[in-house]
Amino acid sequence: RPKLSRPELLCQLKDKVEVATLTPDLQPFSSLPWAAQLPLKPLTSDLGPYKSCAVVSSAGSLRYSGLGKEIDSHDAVLRFNAAPTAGYEKDVGSKTTIRLINSQVMASDEHRFLSSSLYSSGVLVAWDPAPFSADLTQWYNRTDYPIFVQYQRYRRLHPLQPFYILHPRFEWQVWQRIQDNMAEPIQKNPPSSGFLGTVLMMSLCEVVHVYEFLPSRRKTELCHYYQRFYDAACTLGAYHPLLYEKNLVKRMNQGSDRDIYKNGRVTLPGFSKLNC
Ligand code: NCC
């Protein structure tokens, strides 16, 4: 199978992946009373379009980057999980338009998801590693972490904050793009939040800048910019097919290699700007 060119890869991603979120009309939710807490419309009809966007990975190499001002200059900024801005503004900025969180964050005591102010700014989007090709009912009855219980609790406490749940079909559509463009079989686990969030923003923005997903010259084994914890697996992957995700992003990058090396910055076109 021939390796796809950059435009081919981008168009394939646009054609075969759709950002879908749960709405109250979907089975099995339509027969559950709490489904009224789900947003009526999918995320993509409520948010954007934005001109220029930033996706801020949580990588340790953001530390001492001085990228904060540049990140905040974008129209929308996506952050992940428990990644804070307070105290790290110089390096990661302070604007949060969307926060993408995995179900582990919602469920673990450590993150105090229901009470911490970290989660209260911007739009929340949650996801849970659903089994491959499982339908919504199967997944609902056996989520990885108790995403729905925590969702209902959070919504009761913060009824005005927009909060979406990704449709698991999206996870596996993104996974399939990675697998189809790799020579070897990759692990059958969903992509990392980092890559899911990048594709999410490509559907909302005209141009997407991803920071420290492809490591710069500041590359470090420091896992997160906000924690004193060292593990190379944070950058290279273990459970998630992270290295393959990065390989694909490298192939789609429209920016220069120097931009990666100097600023850890990748530039990707939004789907609306592609002529496929
Ligand atoms: O670490 P995590 O990811 O929250 O990071 C968000 C995204 O940033 C990119 N990243 C992060 C660190 C690093 N050194 N290099 C990077 O490129 C990745 O794209 C990553 O997705 C996740 O994807 O949701 C993940 O979540 C954590 C953890 O659940 C949360 O941080 C909450 O504590 C996972 N860690 C563990 O399960 C121990 C991580 O595997 C994936």
Topology:
Elements: H1 6-16, H2 43-46, E1 50-56, H3 68-72, E2 76-80, H4 89-92, E3 98-102, H5 103-107, E4 123-127, H6 136-141, H7 147-157, E5 163-165, H8 168-180, H9 193-202, E6 205-211, H10 233-236, H11 242-252, H12 257-263, E7 265-269
The structure holds cytidine-5'-monophosphate-5-N-acetylneuraminic acid (NCC).
Spell out the key features of this protein.
276 residues; alpha/beta; sialyltransferase cstii, chain A; 7-stranded mixed β-sheet; 33% helix
Quick rundown:
Helices cover 33% and strands 13% of the residues.
Structure commentary:
The protein is of the alpha/beta class and 276 residues long. It has one domain: Alpha-Beta Complex (sialyltransferase cstii, chain A). It contains twelve helices and seven strands. The chain has helices spanning 6-16, 43-46, 68-72, 89-92, 103-107, 136-141, 147-157, 168-180, 193-202, 233-236, 242-252, 257-263, and strands at 50-56, 76-80, 98-102, 123-127, 163-165, 205-211, 265-269. The chain has a seven-stranded mixed beta sheet with strand order 5-4-3-2-1-6-7, sandwiched between helices. Helix 3 (68-72) links the parallel strand 1 (50-56) and strand 2. The protein is globular, with a radius of gyration of 18 Å. The model has no long low-confidence stretch (mean pLDDT 97). The structure holds cytidine-5'-monophosphate-5-N-acetylneuraminic acid. Cytidine-5'-monophosphate-5-N-acetylneuraminic acid is lined by residues 57-60, 80-82, 102, 104-105, 192-194, 213, 223-224, 234-235, 239-240.
